[in-house]
Amino acid sequence: MRPAPLPASVGLRPRPRQEEGCVRCTWPRRGPRRARGRVLRRPQARPGASASPLTPRALPAVLVAGGIVAVVGQFKGWQFAAYSIAAGVLICLLEYPRGRRKKGSTMERWGQKYLTAVVKVFGLLTRNYYIRAILHAALAVPAGFLLATILGTACLGIASVIYLLAAVRGEEWQPIEQKPQERSQVWTTIKQPPAAAEGAVPAPAPAPAPALAE
Amino acid sequence: MGNWVVNHWFPALVIAAWLGINVFLFVYYFLMFDMDEKFYYTREILGSALAWARASAKCLNFNSMLILLPVCRNLLSFLRGTCSLCRRTMRKQLDHNLTFHKLLAYMLAIMTAVHTIAHLFNLERYNDSQQAADGSLSSVLSDLHQDGSDKWLNPIHSNSTTPAYVTFTSIPGLTGVIITVALILMITSSMEFIRRSYFEVFWYTHHLFIIYFAGLVIHGIAGLVRGQTEESLKKYSPQHCAQYLVYRDGRSTHHHCKEPEFGGIPAESWKWVLAPILLYVFERVLRFWRSRQRVVITKVVMHPSKVLELQMHKKGFNMEVGQYIFINCPSISVLEWHPFTLTSAPEDNFFSVHIRAAGDWTENIIDAFQQQKPKIPRIEVDGPFGTASEDVFQYEVAMLIGAGIGVTPFASVLKSIWYKFQQADQSLKTKKAGHAVLNFDTVTDVVTGLKQKTSFGRPMWNNEFSAVATAHPKSVVGVFLCGPEALAKSLQKCCHQYSMLDPRKVKFYFNKENF
Lengths: 214, 515
Fold this sequence. Notes:
Chain A is mostly helical. Chain A has seven helices and one strand, in the order E-H-H-H-H-H-H-H. Chain B has helices spanning 2-35, 40-46, 49-67, 73-82, 88-92, 97-131, 137-143, 163-168, 171-188, 192-197, 199-206, 209-219, 230-235, 238-247, 269-291, 360-371, 391-394, 408-422, 461-471, 485-498, and strands at 226-228, 262-264, 295-303, 307-314, 324-328, 338-341, 351-356, 380-385, 397-403, 432-438, 446-447, 476-482, 507-511. Strand 1 (13-14) of chain A pairs antiparallel with strand 11 (446-447) of chain B.
């Protein structure tokens, strides 16, 4: 069984579309897709993507970890460590809700909506990235007095610089809001039963009722 | 379970061996530093934090040695080529190099955390015992040999300093902080979210590994971890003389005790990482040299839906089906290399890739080729890499499932099958190849010219598998996938479900990692 001969420029040749409404295949997205093997393209920064996802939650976590070590070990100056734990947890909570991208959709983190509501309440204080940058820098300073938390200071400093750069580029934090479901609309449009498909044989007209005898 | 073992025994073995070596190194050096007499006095001050720090340091050395090896693409290609006697399952593991690299990175992160925390305790205890004036053994030891000789035990020589100050004014402290920050930045910028959306950030930040390795080599040269010297240990062992140090009135059993002398452990990280660093340097030089080889672009085809096909020619380029190349376009970005699957067959007299617009770099390259001002941009190519997908040809029946973008490796395979048919290649076992294309692009569909009908939409896998099982009741069927994880799971289930236990009947083998 021989396949048909391939044309000269064989390969991925587009054919005119024949079917309308080809099923658009989607698969359940659970966060970013894993690339198995070699993919055709490598995604790069999409226009409109914000820089705030670049501040990973690991950075304040370093501060919290250092604080815990110093408190548990009762190092000299452990009060700075206790402060660091509190500051680190606060920053983690502030950072947890992912901001909405300008273009395209953004994946929410698990359980993010509760914290989004809280973060939104502070308005400009949490929305503006200049303020976030200053906040990170200010919170980082006291942790610099203790060796165990100095790494946390460095990490928060880096986060502060990232926010500063993002602020200079004009970005700010926008909450990801769920659009209200538009279910009610669908039901109101169903008034008519489905019409017969094209080409289908129309149902035979019902036989006229026998005329009543006079 | 049986299928899992058959498919995964080799990687499981490799990982078990790696974990085993880590555990061995950790436990062996932990016990050594926790029990050896040489460090008796050191332990007096530091407690078991010494052993934690040293054991994790050994693991850090071991993993730092290994971490550069999986990213030496050319070395891996060389191994793949020379190891042709090895079974293909073993060679295929070379394709999991990045997974192994990530695993090593996680282990580095864990060990760095352990090491850092242990040293935080060490510094605090050194400082405390230096400042203590209670005549305890640890404070006595800390005061020994503070006269400028090199025989001291406690690296902190002042009563009025802080651990932070000591850290930043000593070589191991400063390098330790620097390389830990570098490691944190590297790991946090390698998160999948950032790699997918901001690849350049990941790529450039990851080059901090140069600082990491430089710092690692310098980290141990000061010899701050100290143990009693050999001769001091022979003459004044701690068992007999520890009492003397505290009481100094001859209550010890040996009256001739004197103060112990200490020496530092020499730096040894360089011994672990020197060879991999040299290999990696050679790898980068080789990549650069290969990229300087001239690439002639023989044909440029613009497909709809912003897909660019480049047909190229390079001297000495030999490819196999399913391999990929790295492409660099200096006029767009000097340092960026991006991988693309080869879509041509080895029998073609050119090699081709299909590039789809999906971000800055790809859009720029498509624009550059569309406008061609002043002329076609120069392209550099490195490769090919990857295990050849020759497995497809070893199965009598092959099911190739490409989801959307994943159709490209199969273009190469199918073309090659066609060529082999034409040339009546005897080694080709494949008698029938069915190609399912899951298409998400409504504007263009990507279909090869084969007569076998390509279906659209999402197939009902149960129907497909039972149809194949019925049509070929005695064959071995290879199922190949290039697509998302969810699809892999359902295909794997189908493979298990429709494979018969009887080896003479139909069996489905799922080759998830081939593409």
